[in-house]
Amino acid sequence: MKTQPGPRLTRRGRLALIASAVVVVATAVLVPLLLTAGPPAGEGRTVSLLVPEGRRATQVYASVDKVLDVAPGTTAKAATATRLELPDAARHNPEGYLFPATYPVETRTTPAGLLGYMVDTARERFGADHIAAGARRNGVTVYQTVTIASIVQAEADTAADMARVARVVHNRLAKDMPLQMDSTLNYALNRSTLDTTHSDTQTPGPYNTYENRGLPPTPIGNPGEEAMNAAINPTRGDWLYFVTVAPGDTRFTADYAEHQSNVREFNANRSAATD
To answer: Please, are residues 102 and 50 in contact by the beta-carbon 8 Å criterion?
Structure first.
């Protein structure tokens, strides 16, 4: 669906799929300390690196650079130079497979080693039998399921909404409807914003899900287990639209006119809050 030209207040008012990004405390995993070769470098203090659900690869790289006190861009280069154990469909791009968790970091931890453990953790979690079975049940691959989960992670207003957002994604894919996700545009434009203009929806490229049908070519962030479970177990429903009219009040519908009414209510709430 196309909107009228002009600026938008927030993606929650879009006449397509709307909700704000969710950042929650990541699941803690125990990861062995990652050591370089050579003798111990003295006592060294162990710290923790938190990778929240939904964080993009570029954001993870920057966090690793900071916690390891290395030059900006070091971890991004390591991601390219290191042979990470990724699925073939990823084409050496770790986006979606830098598993959200709390990782211990020791003095001799390396960017390549830390990325490797994130990817190994994702492969273990996403490689579980129930994930593969859920992907088959929904007629998609595991990699596509990770992509769907990354969209769910970015679009769901609350954890409780995730399975319904996933259902909207699956319903639109089944009907060969463009997903029309602002979150994929934000990814393409390397930003995080609630404001999307009509010109944004005409941005060229494979992550523009207004212009292109189907899923984007890669995940748009690194989803957690809740989003993955929602992607393989979407709630039953015929919904094609949703809008969060107020915090904690997301309306799902298959009726476009009803959706427009919900959007008007959202806009009224937004205007009142702004005033």
So the answer is: yes
Is residue 60 in some structural domain?
no
Residue 209 within a domain: yes
Contact of 230 with 149, CB cutoff 8 Å? yes
Quickly list DSSP for 37-80: SSS--SS---EEEE--TT--HHHHHHHHHHHHT--TTHHHHHHH
Taking the C-alpha atoms of residue 115 and residue 149, their distance in angstroms, rounded to an integer, is 20
Residue from 19, 39, 41 nearest 168 by CA? 19
In a domain, 152, yes or no: yes
Helix (H) or strand (E) holding 48: strand 47-50
Q: What is the pLDDT of residues 35-68, one digit of tens each?
A: 333 333 335 567 899 999 999 999 999 999 999 9
Residue 103: helix, strand or coil by DSSP? strand
Handedness of CA 218, 222, 226, 229 (dihedral sign): positive
Model confidence pLDDT, tens digit, residues 71-82: 999 999 999 999
Q: Is residue 207 part of a domain?
A: yes
| Residue 152 domain boundaries | 11-24+141-274
How far apart are the two ends of the chain, measured CA to CA in Å? Answer: 29
Output the 3-class SS for 223-246.
CCHHHHHHHHCCCCCCCCEEEEEE
- The number of distinct structural domains making up the chain is 1
